[in-house]
Structures are given as C-alpha cells and as structure tokens.
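Write out a record, focusing on structure:
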Amino acid sequence: PATEEHYRRAVDALRSLGAEVVEDPFAGTGFVELYDERSGVRTQSAYDMLLYLRGLGPDAPFDSIEEWEALSGREFTRGR
C-alpha cells in the first residue's frame, strides 16, 4: 500500500510536468501469474552476469564472477 501511494504520487508529478504516462499494459491480463508459474527458467546466466559486471566500467571493484564472489563472500550459482 505505501509503495503504491509513492508510485501514484510519482506518476502524478510526472503528469504535472507534461509527461504522457502509459498505464501498465499487462494489468489484469494474468501475466504475473503466468510468470510466477514458470518452471526451470533461469532469468540470469553466468554469461549475463559477466556482461553486467563488465558493463560497470573500469572503476568497478570487480569485473568477474569470481572477483564478485571473493568480495561478497557469496557464491553465484545461477546458470552454472
């Protein structure tokens, strides 16, 4: 509820500045339920993560999954 209120206020602010707001085209279609019911679909592979990390630029504290794992103390297990 609080998040929805913040969202509505942000949309109203954008409208007041002249933005054309496009309502959610998936609202009421059941898409969220279908998405939640999918099985075995990985949304992020090791390759996707590597591309993301490299895209952080030369000043990023890490640029590989192995460096991220060492710095975060967590293991990246998706898509491996």
